[in-house]
Structures are given as structure tokens and as C-alpha cells.
């Protein structure tokens, strides 16, 4: 008994010592951007203890023994968000054997290979300053759940992941199937046409680790109705999950906006009336706007790529003018010899610039708007006491020069330096 008590006391003392000995890091920030307000503070000290921020201010004292990171000549801001990613997709370019179609990729790559692609993409995203992402499916058989858990356990580097699991869609999903092979779209998609199937799909996703529910509204001639979508919004809410709706047509976007989904993904064909309905119902637009290079990756003629790009710029400009809440999302699935997934993702900010959106509003789409959409605003998306220490730095102030986000020189995730430092 005595031995047991001594061992228990030893373990307790050791655990207390471990907690009290958490790594303390003091970051000297020459400029500190507050994206919510679009303002800049100067000469701030950010005190990080363990995974979280302990204090921020000009008069914060640096404790003895703290590791000091000198970013006094740089601009510091919270880590960035990408609200529409596909980590388990890596088609073409330097790291895969073929370009091919999405359908072909689904059929020819195993869960294990796609998990490896997810590891590569996650590392590259973090290196470019994306500390939180929402992975919205096309991830084989719940690869994104396993990827999220591996990152959370510290086994591999990567952003915090909010993942959807299998995409829920009317029969066929985003593919044209053959009657002899009508199940080839699985497990990428969960075909749900009746209310019972919708409920089952949502519950299975929640059971297997989904943190958000993704539906495809309108990639077939038949689309989900307003009542269908309202039913899934309510069912997802019973599990504490939000609903993201893939919409590529005007009617699909209208149905999703009227049903009150958390976000419309893409919304390429949205009229001003559909955008106004989204604003009225507090629906966020994750516009996934490609630059011409990204459109050309689909092997489409340059003139069509230009038309798609111009359409995206126009819709993004109109959405901003109407006051629709915007959150940044990339939707990239291709690789390129001269890009990582992270650098290519960051280049899509240029579309926001082309649409005439001011840097302060671009930053809001990249950070606070995104944090609220993902439901993590109390833990991430700001540099303040109590938040997780997801911190990046750039050579210039992005409020003055948004392109400086392409030159992220320092990345800290959950209090650990991943890139840069002294």
C-alpha cells in the first residue's frame, strides 16, 4: 500500500512539474495586424505558454528563461484559413503519375496512397501559413478523419482540420455512372434521395468523425429542393454540425440560400437576387475562385478558362458590393511543377484583388469570417489571450500590400514553431 501511495505521489508531482514547465515563447512583433478591425498595433509582445497565447501587449514582461522570437522587423497576424480544400487529392504535376479526371483518380488510388497525398498537402498548406482548413470531402473512405487525428496527435505537421467525410448527394453525385456499375461513385459519395437516406448519411458521417456535413445540391438534372436541404440542416444540427452546400447553378444556390445552410460553396452562377437572399439568411459564400492558371489545369481551352475567370471575378465583385459574408476557399486538387498546394492556394487571393476587394476585407475572408463559419472563433483566428497560438509573419503589412501573404516567413501552430524563428 505504501509503495502504491508513493508511486501515486510521484506521478502527481511529475505531472504538476510537467505542466508548470510548459515551454514559454515570447514573440516580439514589430507590427501586429488585427484582422477583425483592419488595424495594426506596433511593438507588441505575444507571450505563448504551451499551445495557447497567455498575454499580448506593449507592456508584457518577458519572463526569465523564455525563448524569444524576434519578429520586430516583420508583420505578425493570426494563421490563415482555407474553407474549401481537398487534402486527399493530388492530381498531375510533379507528384503523381497522371493528370486524368477526378473520377479516374477516385478509381485508381487506394486509401493509403490518398492518405500520403493528404500528408504532403497538409505540410505544404501549413508552410504557406494556413493553420486551419475545412476539408470538404472527396477523400476516399474517411481519409480526412484519419489525417485530422494524426495531426491532432502530433504525428505529422499540418493545419487544424474541420472535415466532412463522405459527400451527400442525389444519385450519381458529381459523376455520370453506367447502369452496370452504378456504385462506382462510392465511397466518395453517399447517395441520398429519400429522407431516411439523408438521415442515415448524416448520422454515418457524424459517427465516422465528420465535423461538418457537405452536400452536393445540383450536379445532376434533379436537384435537392428547399425542403430537402432544410431537413438536412436540421438533422445535421442535432449532431452539432453545420451544412455546407455545393452549388454551381442559380437554382441550386437559391434553394440552399433559402434553406439557410451555413455556406454556399462555389455559387458560380449566382445572380444579385440569389446573393441578396444569401445575405438575408446569413449564408456565407465560399466562392472558390480560380485564377486562369487553375482553370487551365482542367485541360480546358484558354478562351474558356478566361471566360470562367471573368465570371468568377464578376460574381465575387457583386457579392462583396452587396455585403455578402465571404470566406476564402481554394478547391484546388491539382499539383504543378512550380507550386506546392500551399503556394498555389495563396495565389488565388489575386482573384479577390482583381475583383476590387480591399486588403482589409480579404483578410477578414481569410481569418475572422472563416473562423466563425468553421465554428472555432473562440479558439482560433485571433491573437489574444486564451486563443491557440496559431501565428504567422510576413515581410510587409498585408493591409498595405496583400501580396505579402505569398511570402510567409514564420509559422507557429499550437505554440510550436513550424517555419522561421531565430
Give me a quick take on this structure:
Helices cover 36% and strands 21% of the residues. With 422 residues, the chain is an alpha/beta fold.
Q: What characterizes the major β-sheet?
A: 7 strands, mixed
Portion in strands: 15-25%
CATH architecture of the largest domain: Alpha-Beta Barrel
- Which stretches of 5+ consecutive residues score pLDDT under 50? 4-20, 93-100
Query: What's the CATH C level of the largest domain?
Result: Alpha Beta
Number of separate helices:
14
What would you call the structural class?
A: alpha/beta
What shape does the CA trace take? globular
Helical fraction equals 25-40%
> What average pLDDT do the residues reach?
91
Number of separate strands: 16
> Termini distance?
50 Å
Order of helices and strands: HEEEEEHHEHEEEHEHEHEHEHHHHHHEEE
- Side-by-side strand order of the widest sheet: 3-2-1-4-14-15-16
Task: Work out the count of structural domains.
Answer: 2
CATH topology of the largest domain: TIM Barrel
Q: What is the CATH superfamily label of the largest domain? A: Metal-dependent hydrolases
Rg result: 22 Å
List the helices and strands and how they pair.
Elements (H helix, E strand, L loop, with lengths): L1 H19 L3 E11 L4 E11 L2 E6 L9 E12 L1 E6 L16 H7 L2 H17 L2 E6 L7 H10 L7 E4 L3 E3 L19 E3 L3 H13 L5 E4 L9 H13 L4 E5 L2 H10 L3 E4 L5 H9 L3 E3 L5 H5 L5 H21 L18 H7 L1 H6 L4 H8 L1 H7 L16 E4 L15 E4 L2 E4 L3
Parallel strand pairs: 1-4, 5-6, 6-7, 8-9, 10-11, 11-12, 12-13
Antiparallel strand pairs: 1-2, 2-3, 4-14, 14-15, 15-16
Amino acid at each position: 500500500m505504501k509503495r502504491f501511495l508513493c508511486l501515486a505521489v510521484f506521478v502527481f508531482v511529475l505531472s504538476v512539474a510537467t505542466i508548470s514547465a510548459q515551454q514559454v515563447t515570447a514573440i516580439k512583433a514589430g507590427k501586429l495586424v488585427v484582422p477583425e478591425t483592419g488595424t495594426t498595433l506596433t511593438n507588441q509582445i505575444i507571450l505563448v505558454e504551451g499551445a495557447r497565447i497567455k498575454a499580448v501587449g506593449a507592456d508584457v514582461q518577458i519572463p526569465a528563461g523564455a525563448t524569444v522570437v524576434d519578429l520586430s522587423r516583420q508583420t505578425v497576424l493570426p494563421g490563415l484559413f482555407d474553407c474549401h480544400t481537398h487534402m486527399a487529392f493530388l492530381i498531375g504535376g510533379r507528384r503523381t503519375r497522371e493528370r486524368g479526371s477526378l473520377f479516374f483518380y477516385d478509381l485508381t488510388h487506394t486509401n493509403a496512397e490518398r492518405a500520403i497525398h493528404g500528408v504532403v498537402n497538409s505540410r505544404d498548406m501549413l508552410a504557406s501559413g494556413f493553420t486551419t482548413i475545412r476539408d470538404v470531402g472527396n477523400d476516399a473512405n474517411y481519409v480526412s478523419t484519419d489525417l485530422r487525428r494524426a495531426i491532432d496527435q502530433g504525428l505529422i505537421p499540418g493545419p487544424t482540420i474541420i472535415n466532412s467525410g463522405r459527400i451527400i448527394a442525389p444519385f450519381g453525385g458529381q459523376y455520370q455512372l453506367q447502369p452496370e456499375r452504378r456504385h462506382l461513385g462510392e465511397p466518395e459519395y453517399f447517395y441520398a434521395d429519400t429522407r431516411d437516406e439523408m438521415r442515415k448519411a448524416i448520422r454515418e458521417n457524424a459517427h465516422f468523425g465528420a465535423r461538418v456535413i457537405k452536400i452536393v445540391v445540383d450536379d445532376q438534372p434533379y436537384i435537392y429542393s428547399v425542403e430537402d436541404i432544410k431537413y438536412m440542416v436540421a438533422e445535421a444540427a442535432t449532431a452539432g454540425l453545420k451544412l455546407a452546400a455545393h452549388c454551381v447553378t442559380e437554382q441550386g444556390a437559391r434553394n440552399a440560400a433559402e434553406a439557410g445552410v451555413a455556406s454556399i460553396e462555389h455559387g458560380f452562377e449566382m445572380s444579385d437576387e440569389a446573393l441578396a437572399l444569401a445575405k438575408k439568411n446569413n449564408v456565407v459564400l465560399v466562392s472558390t475562385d480560380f485564377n486562369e492558371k487553375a482553370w487551365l489545369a482542367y485541360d480546358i481551352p484558354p478562351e474558356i478558362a478566361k471566360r470562367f475567370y471573368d465570371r468568377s471575378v464578376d460574381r465575387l465583385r457583386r457579392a462583396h458590393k452587396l455585403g455578402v459574408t465571404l470566406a476564402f476557399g481554394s478547391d484546388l486538387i491539382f499539383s504543378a511543377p512550380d507550386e506546392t498546394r500551399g503556394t498555389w492556394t495563396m495565389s488565388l487571393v489575386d482573384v479577390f484583388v482583381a475583383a476590387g476587394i480591399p486588403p482589409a476585407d480579404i483578410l477578414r475572408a481569410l481569418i475572422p469570417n472563416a473562423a466563425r463559419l468553421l465554428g472555432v472563433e473562440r479558439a482560433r483566428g485571433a491573437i489574444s489571450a486564451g486563443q491557440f497560438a496559431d501565428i504567422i509573419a510576413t515581410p510587409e503589412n498585408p493591409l498595405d500590400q496583400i501580396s505579402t501573404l505569398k511570402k510567409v516567413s514564420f509559422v507557429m501552430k499550437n505554440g510550436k514553431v513550424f517555419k522561421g524563428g531565430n
